[in-house]
Fold Pyridoxal phosphate-dependent aminotransferase.
Amino acid sequence: MSRIAKRVEKALTFQAMEVTKIAQTLKEQGKDIISLGIGEPDFTAPAIVVETLNHAAEAGLSGYSPALGIAPLRAEIANYYKKSFGASVKPEQVIITSGASGALSLACLSTLNPGDEILMPDPAYPANSNFIICAGAIPRLIPCTAEERFQLSAEKIMANWTPNTRGVLIASPSNPTGTSVDNQELKKIIQAVKARNGLVIMDEIYLGLSYDHDPVSALTIDPDIIVINSFSKYFHMTGWRLGWMIAPEDIVPAVEKLASSLCICPSTLAQHAAITCFTDEAMAIYEKRRLAFKERRDYLLPELERLNLQVPVVPDGAFYIYADISHYAHDSETFARDLLNETGVAVVPGLDFGPEHARRMIRISYATGLDRLKEAIARMAPFLQKLAARKSIAHQ
């Protein structure tokens, strides 16, 4: 009898982390690696946030916090949603968590029963499926096309709804595609789910990193949903492991009951420091960095097209580009491995994000500096030329 739980067998391997491990091994061997794989900003927390952390440590504010987080931070986040997105959120609805991962885990554990189905788009962030699986529920990936911006539609939700469907988990902007759900479509989605007494979980981790339009929180459409967010991406605090959930008030006690046992509390020092993220000084820094990410996107898109790495949908947020390699190859795993070994450029194969587009798509992260992105393109060009030559010979 195996000592490993069956849920582990069902869980998806996170290929982005596997690529990172291989890249790290190559770095240790002395090879210069340009990481376009993992979604970690090259920016770090602003100095003002770090200074606040140090002051909190010196003041001895390192004990346990309430399971739901410290009141001043919960209030700041509620105010942030009102000020930045026009959403009315009570501080009592805000739950501070150990990263967005902690928020998703608690959201699934507190709302899903064994056998419940959650609809998600294919492609989607793979860890989201694992949170659902670990709650005993079932993720159902619905294939989505470029014409749909690789996002679920109300029509597809209604067509795939079954007696076992509990709700939907949607990311906007999305990882891996960087695409957002159209506001009118999002309204239809929420209405369709609510008409079936379903649950809406919105991943808004990249909401602050929107480039072509003003970001819209789903809470402005319907306040009776669960929203997940994080200090990792827009606020550039990945290793601080701090995120939050905004939940309907009737769900909060259930989350608190689980959080007090499973997590005790998020990092108290990180919570005190995060209050400073919402100051005018810090927000000005984040806005400047958002524009830097946009500049990187705007550089990469025409360069990838020039290299015949087609981008079916222009990303409007996050820091990812979902690119088609079928001009050169039909196996994204082999493509990504060879690209890393031969050029030192790391990308993530499409297998990470669902089976529908796995073989022909890769995810490229532009969470690294523009100078390194230019070097990556320079390295990729001769590699792709070589692949094209091989393909030409094979067809002769």
Q: What stands out?
A: Residues 82 and 88 are 6 Å apart (CA to CA). The chain has two domains: 10-44+282-394, 47-279. DSSP finds 13 helices and twelve strands in the chain. The mean pLDDT is 95.
